[in-house]
Amino acid sequence: MSLNLECLEWINTNKSARLIKTLKKSKQITNNDLASSVYLLQIAPSKCSQSKLACLMSNQFVNIFDQNSLKSIHKFKGFDKSPTTTITEIGFYSKNDDLIFGCSDNGSLRCWDLRQNLSGENLDECINFKTDEEREFLTADINREDSYFIVGTNKNIDNALVYIFDIRMNGKYLHKLTESHSSDVTQVKFYPNTGSKFCSGSLDGLVCLYDLEQEPENTLKIPLDRNNDEEDETDSDEDPDLMDQVLNADSSIQKIGFLSSKCLEIDQIYAITYTNDLIVWDLQSHDVVYQVKNSNKKEVLGQNDSEDQEDEYFFDCFYMRPDLMAICKGNKSGGFKLLNGNDVLCDSLCDLNEASSKRMHRDVIRSSYWNGQNLYTAGEDGFLFKWKLIDKNTKSIDFDDKTKSNKRDLNEDMESDDEDNHFRAQSKRPNKNNNRKRSFSIVIFIWSFALSSKMIVFII
């Protein structure tokens, strides 16, 4: 199968991107120029109506775009009171597209209502979750019922933590998992089809699967001291045994996500590592069903090709069709490929580069989103693109030919109108031949009348 990528819409959120690119070529760029550059870190789609896209920007603004036209709907800075705070991840509520959440490195998880101030750039949070420990909240997600948050933290003195927050508990955490990961938690995700199961990926190379409905085992319960008048506020559900399975990627996890194909009844989870490996597990058997190792690619491609591959990276994976898994692979120049999951080393579904398209990214792609019809990409160049996949074997609408045909039809209509007008003009114009015949007959009649008069006079 051979596909083409057509750019439907695009927007540049970095006004100084062209200047910085020019300065890079002339080698006159300074640190101040780089500091003024704004690039996109993450795309977060709305889950209820799929009508909005939230983009996290490097200047800590959150920009909300219309998913069809990519027009900016709203822009705000949620942590304006703390200029040194960095937002690490954002997302929409599952059942309300006007509510958005974000976690930050100051150890807080905040929620905002976009209906509060549509014209201003400052929004006050409607919910704020915090803990007493000095932890950075690196990643967060919400379940499909909008009832639980999960948050992954950095490694402090001991292990990294995974917090579970109940939205009804007014900012207090429900569970704290301390034995899951020995290094920073890079991403957490709730299962898309259930509200109780979730997973976490870490720099320790592990992907842990959990279930909130699983009965906790080996839970530490501290009895109350009845001789003490003060109540013991220790959380008896701290560090419950909610873990269902542990998957090992043998490398630091950068991104995790879910793959689903209803036609083939496939439920899978994938992980992309910092060493550019891609691993896919089956959620039922927990077996590895697909993997692309960077070391294996070097052995197959050889020394020269492997050096070129070092500038390439995986950034997404999804089922484009029920029986076709597409793998997104980009390069540092801004181009990217869609690879066929059945033969990732040899079969490229489409390749977007400077030779094939003038409209493309000019830097690393940081985030992407596939909504089943269109592909959205955001990168360090500050651009947000909306792409449409077109099969080369299928004839697409050519606007240029259509325009020509319209012009051609218009010319034909004009020619036909000219012929009709010419015919009407000719029908109204007097006929010279008929006039000549009439004048000649009149002359003959007069001459004959005069001749007959002379003969009558002669006879008399």
Count every helix, treating DSSP H or I runs of 4 or more residues as helices. 6
Percent of residues in beta strands: 35-45%
Question: Main β-sheet, in a few words?
Answer: 4 strands, antiparallel
Please count the beta strands (DSSP E, at least 2 residues each).
Answer: 28
Specify the helix fraction band: 10-25%
Taking all Cα atoms into account, the compactness measure Rg is 36 Å
Distance between the termini: 113 Å
Mean pLDDT: 78
Strand order of the largest sheet: 1-28-27-26
* Alpha-beta content class: alpha+beta
Apparent shape: globular
Instruction: Give the low-pLDDT segments.
Output: 218-237, 298-304, 396-430, 454-460
SSE blueprint:
Elements: E1 3-12, H1 17-26, H2 31-35, E2 40-45, E3 52-57, E4 62-66, E5 72-76, E6 87-92, E7 99-104, E8 108-113, E9 127-130, E10 137-142, E11 148-153, E12 160-166, E13 173-181, E14 185-190, E15 197-202, E16 206-211, E17 243-248, E18 253-261, E19 266-273, E20 278-282, E21 288-292, H3 294-301, H4 303-309, E22 312-321, E23 324-331, E24 336-340, E25 348-352, E26 365-370, E27 374-379, E28 383-391, H5 399-428, H6 432-459
